[in-house]
Structure formats: C-alpha cells, structure tokens
C-alpha cells in the first residue's frame, strides 16, 4: 500500500515587519484592540520587488533541501494562493521556472485559507493512485497588495509569506492518514475580493469604490470558522476512531487567537498541544499552515510517530482537515 509522506518542509517570510504600533499611525486603531480581538502583534510585509512567487520559491527550495531532492525530481507543483503574481500564468508555473523543475506539471489552487490543505489532499490522491511520486505543495500569499490600508476592519489582520512541503510515495505507514474537504459557495460574499476579476474589472470607478481590496464580514466569518473547523476536525478524528487525547499537535489555520482557542476548547485539545504563531505573522491565508508546520518541524515540536491534526477555514467558504502520522 502506498502512503504519502511529508519528507521536507520550508518557509519564507519578508524581512520587513509591521507592528501594531506602526498600524496605529495609519488608521484609528490600537495595539490593545488588535491584540485583544485577534492575538496579532506584528506581520511580515513584502517590499518592492518581492512577489508571491518570490516567497513560494524560497520556501520550496528549503523544503526540497530538507527532503534531499533536486527540483528536476518533482512530478508536480501545486501552489495554493489568492494573491498570484498574475491572473495567468499560474504562480506554480513561475515557481517551476524559478526552480528549473523541468519535469513537473504546475498548477495553482484557489481555495483561500484552505488552499494548502486542499493541495495536500490532491497531492495525496495523485500519490496513492500511483500517478505521481514526488510533489511540492506550497501555500504562498502577498495579501498586503490586496489589503485596503485605510480600512481598520481588515488592514491589521493579514500578513505575507509562504510555506511548502515535499510529499513522496512511501511504503512506510507514516504520512497522511486522511484528508477531508468541504465548500459552501452560498456564503461567498462574506469574504472576497470584489474587484480585478471579470465581474468588476479594473477601472477608475472600481478603484474609487475600493473594489480591488479584501471585503470581509468579520464577525459572520468568525462564527462559521469556529463551527466549520471544529466539525471537520472532529470528522477527521472520528474516521480513525481517535480522540483529542491521541493528538500530539494541533495546527489550525492562524487567523485569530480567539478562533483557535474556541476550536481547541470544542475539541478538548489542551493549550500545550496547540501550535500558535498568529501573534508574529497575522493571517497569511494559504501560507499559515505550512509556515506553522515548518516551524514545528524546525523547533522539534514534531517527532517521528506523532499524530498531527491540521484544520483550515477560508473564503468560499472552504474548510478542510488532515491527519498526519509524522
Ligand atoms: O482566514 C479566514 C477568514 N478570516 C477570519 O477567520 C477572520 C474572522 N473574523 C475575526 O477574526 C474577527 O471578526 C475580527 C478580528 C475581524 C473582528 O473582531 P470582532 O470581535 O468580530 O469585532 P466586530 O467586527 O464585531 O467589530 C467590533 C467593533 C466595531 O465597532 P462598533 O461597530 O461596535 O462601534 C468595529 O468598527 O470594533 C471595531 N473595529 C475596530 N476598532 C479598533 C473593527 N476593527 C477595528 C480596529 N481597531 N482595527
């Protein structure tokens, strides 16, 4: 039986850091409000000349090094992003070009903050069916370019960066045990980018109406996030007859500390088993879980044999969970 094993992780973040105190100077907000409502203290922001493909390629190189692979060994590159360098070609094609991964097929996945787990699930299916053996899955965003820096409701929430994993076919029983994905398009208007697509193309009117920037009904999204991520994490545990006690590390999407705490409480996962880095990076959408996974891997928070639960939620609406035996 073929399993899908994570053999390398990597991440990359812009050098520039924007603190809550910096944002206090831009809009009517305070460090105290942002920390209390979100847990975020700072975020990394791309500078001129840095794009989604820049961080995606850096994270990918780190993951390939850890896996001991060269880019030409990859069969597939999946990049989850809602902030591609261009509408087309895909950011995955740009990463393929940067890496010189000549033998890989490359495509993007659009599932907002759930994009990385959607990508991991697709990679798992390709590997289990024998259609591919080595796949790079990246979550990468430069959200600062679609954030309205005059809107206090959203500008303090998001950050830039990328995380990546290499997954490989393996005979061992370690790796992805199962993945679960759900979508509900009926709530698409709760979180979206109104402009720059075919519905509201770029125009002076679209720009004056702030359409190219993220629009979010924060408190509605909050409620859906707690419910949906909680449900899909429970579903993942139930499939394997596991309880929260069996989990060694829970890595939820890093959007808001209060969402993470509410889900952990619902699942019964104690604080010490929850991975949390939202205070340093903010919400990096599809990049949040692979950045966290790489940090957990580099800092010894995961050991061979550990059971890791991953859960995500994002615009679409989309949500997903994955259980990994490390
Ligand atoms: O990545 C997946 C998708 N995204 C998420 O999961 C995010 C989900 N939502 C959230 O994290 C939270 O809803 C927010 C952090 C966005 C907002 O927190 P909240 O506790 O839900 O606040 P709220 O939206 O109910 O707003 C409360 C008040 C409002 O004032 P009024 O109308 O009560 O007078 C806002 O105008 O807080 C105000 N407010 C702010 N005040 C100071 C909103 N943003 C700010 C701000 N500074 N930055």
Quick gist of this model?
The protein has 326 residues and is of the alpha/beta class.
Can you describe this structure?
This protein has 326 residues and is α/β, with parallel strands linked by helices. It folds into 2 domains: 3-173, Thiolase/Chalcone synthase (Peroxisomal Thiolase, Chain A, domain 1, 3-Layer(aba) Sandwich), CATH 3.40.47; 177-325, Peroxisomal Thiolase, Chain A, domain 1. The protein contains 10 helices and 13 strands. The strands form 4 sheets. It has a 5-stranded mixed sheet, with helices on both faces. Strands 8-13-12-11 form a 4-stranded mixed sheet, with helices on both faces. A two-stranded antiparallel ribbon has the order 2-3. Helix 4 links the parallel strand 4 (76-80) and strand 5 (105-109). Oxa(dethia)-CoA is lined by residues 29, 33-34, 37-38, 113, 152-153, 156-157, 191, 218-219, 221-222, 225, 255-256, 259, 283, 313-314.
């Amino acid at each position: 039986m073929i399993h899908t094993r994570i053999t390398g992780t990597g991440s990359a973040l812009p050098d520039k850091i924007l603190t809550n105190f910096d944002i206090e100077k831009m809009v009517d907000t305070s460090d105290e409000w942002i920390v209390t409502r979100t847990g975020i203290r700072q975020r990394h922001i791309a500078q001129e000349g840095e794009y989604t493909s820049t961080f995606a390629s850096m994270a990918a190189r780190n993951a390939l090094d850890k896996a001991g692979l060269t880019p030409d060994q990859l069969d597939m590159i999946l990049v989850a992003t809602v902030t591609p360098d261009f509408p087309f070609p895909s950011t995955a094609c740009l990463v393929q070009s940067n890496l010189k991964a000549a033998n890989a097929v490359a495509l993007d996945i659009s599932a907002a903050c759930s994009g990385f787990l959607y990508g991991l699930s697709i990679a798992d299916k390709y590997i289990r069916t024998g259609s591919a053996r080595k796949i790079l899955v990246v979550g990468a965003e430069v959200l600062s370019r679609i954030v309205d820096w005059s809107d206090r409701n959203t500008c303090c929430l998001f950050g830039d960066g990328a995380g990546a994993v290499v997954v490989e076919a393996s005979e061992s029983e370690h790796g992805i045990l199962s993945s679960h994905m759900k979508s509900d398009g009926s709530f698409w208007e709760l979180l979206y980018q109104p402009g720059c697509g075919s519905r509201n193309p770029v125009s002076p009117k679209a720009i004056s109406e702030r359409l190219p920037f993220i629009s979010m009904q924060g408190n509605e999204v909050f409620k859906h996030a707690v419910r949906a991520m909680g449900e899909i994490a429970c579903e993942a545990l139930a499939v394997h007859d596991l309880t929260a006690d069996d989990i060694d590390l829970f890595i939820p999407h890093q959007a808001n500390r209060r969402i993470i705490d509410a889900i952990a409480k619902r699942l019964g996962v104690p604080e010490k088993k929850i991975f949390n880095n939202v205070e340093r990076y903010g919400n990096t959408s599809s990049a949040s879980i692979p950045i966290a996974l790489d940090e957990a891997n580099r800092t010894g928070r995961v050991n061979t044999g550990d059971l890791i639960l991953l859960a995500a939620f994002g615009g679409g609406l989309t949500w997903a969970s994955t259980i990994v035996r490390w």
